[in-house]
Specification:
This protein is α/β, with parallel strands linked by helices and 228 residues long. The chain has helices at residues 20-31, 48-55, 69-79, 94-103, 115-126, 134-147, 162-171, 177-184, 188-202, 210-213, and strands spanning 11-16, 36-42, 59-63, 84-90, 108-110. It has a five-stranded parallel β-sheet with strand order 2-1-3-4-5, with helices on both faces.
Length: 228
């Protein structure tokens, strides 16, 4: 990965790994970099959240090879959502990259990554930016493309039956339940039941709110007759 220019700033980093050799090695290298303030290093113990509250890191540099690493990320994001998590030792398998993104990891250092990659990833993560290899970025964009656009919720009128749409149309004209029943040839009690169903489907409490929500026309398809 090429090193782009970044502002002269310092990021607070906590190294998280259950391998002592990784923690010590990374900590010593990161302490030499003036862009990094190492706030601590440790394994994923039950006291981790308390440790993070005491050390106040901006970014956690996490060893993805740990057991249940993604579960650890989810717990950190749930309890300390302001802390960014970046992972090292990430494989180039698209499934693993996607799983990391879904868990809340916001930076990726591959297994062949360098200390400079870790520093740059942490700096960008602290600013809410993604820094990763073009290959990893392509995997993530491909996943977004596959997901497609978020489907729009159906229109309110689509929640109603043909008969309910007829009743809404008459309600919009200001007719009472008795007048609606007379016009449709049904009882006032039946109209009342329909109105109650309409209010529930539209999530409103008063019938006076219905006309403002939608304008309903009864379906005119052949053979589409509602029963009461």
């Amino acid at each position: 990965m090429k090193t782009p220019s970044v502002p002269d700033c310092q990021v607070k980093v906590f190294v998280l790994s259950d391998v002592l050799l990784y923690r010590e090695g990374l900590s010593r290298q990161l302490e030499k970099d003036r862009r990094v303030e190492l706030t601590g290093a440790g394994p994923p113990t039950p006291e981790l959240v308390s440790t993070l509250e005491f050390t106040h890191p901006d970014v956690i540099v996490m060893d993805l090879s740990m057991h249940d690493s993604l579960g650890i990320v989810r717990r950190i994001r749930e309890l300390r959502p302001e802390v960014r998590v970046v992972a090292f030792a990430v494989s180039d398998l698209s499934e693993e990259i996607v799983a990391c993104a879904k868990a809340g990891i916001c930076g990726y250092i591959p297994k062949e990554g360098t200390i400079e990659d870790i520093v740059m990833t942490a700096l960008h993560a602290a600013r809410g930016e993604l820094y990763c290899s073009p290959k990893f970025a392509a995997f993530l964009l491909e996943q977004v493309a596959r997901a497609g656009p978020t489907p729009s919720p159906p229109p309110l009128a689509a929640r109603l039956t043909a008969r309910e749409c007829e009743i809404v149309s008459l309600m919009q004209r200001g007719l009472s339940n008795k007048e609606i029943g007379r016009g449709l040839g049904i009882s006032g009690a039946t109209v009342k039941n329909h109105v109650h169903s309409i209010l529930e489907k539209l999530a409103v409490r008063r019938r006076s709110q219905v006309p403002a929500l939608l304008s309903c026309q009864p379906p005119t398809r052949d053979g589409d007759h509602a029963t009461v």
